[in-house]
Amino acid sequence: xxxxxxxxxxSIYRPIIYxxxxxxxxxxxxxxxxxxxxxxxxxxxxxxxxxxxDSDIVGGADDLSYFIKRVTFKLHETYPNPTxxxxxxxxxxxxxxxxxxxxxxxxxxxxxxxxxxxxxxHHLKLHPWTVAGEPEIxxxxxxxxxxxxxxxxxxEIVFNDPFQSFLQTLLAHPPTPLPKSKRRPVPFHVANxxxxxASKGGVPEFTADMEKEEGERLETAxxxxxxxxxxxxGLLIEKEKELERLKKQLES
Length: 252
Description:
Blueprint: E1 11-24, H1 27-32, E2 40-48, E3 68-74, E4 83-86, E5 91-97, E6 102-109, E7 118-123, H2 140-146, E8 149-160, H3 164-171, H4 208-251
Antiparallel strand pairs: 1-2, 1-8, 2-5, 3-4, 3-6, 6-7
């Protein structure tokens, strides 16, 4: 029974990334498809934030199955079986396509965690994006030279007051530390601090510096939301007082 007792006051987190890698199909690859209008092959995934040394995969150094039971990817409805359940690592789905769209990513935790599933949303990116936030679509030959487009977001899954048994499981699987800085020069375009948004070629890598920047960015966004909420709450209170005043005038 002690294992089902929550450890109050304890918070423990696991860094993850979610996003996609996309590669332009050659003309020969397009011709071989049953859907020749498809222009890219892509993979959407949930992975550990750290990358294995000298790997051409973004993230994925750690096996996340000790706390993740299933990842459900909800693709565009035009795909056959658009809801894809992945119950073992790697937690990813690969497809081909021609358009960008939003993918719903639902993470279900192992039953012993006692945690509710969480949902993320990722905009599938096939093209590098400009600073203005518009897709940049280069000619086929140039796109093939640039290499894969990467679009990944860093996040931290926080477990508050975990069960004793689950806490022990987490402590037994510490995440691979992120390198302080990039271990090799990689040419990629960063649209937002702390995230790898629509990179141009190369294999990007998350670092401790980027983790810190992302934490600061999330805190800034949180404070902005709090301030906006307080503003609208104050406005609502004023309107309620005005409504009450008008009611009293009507009654009199």
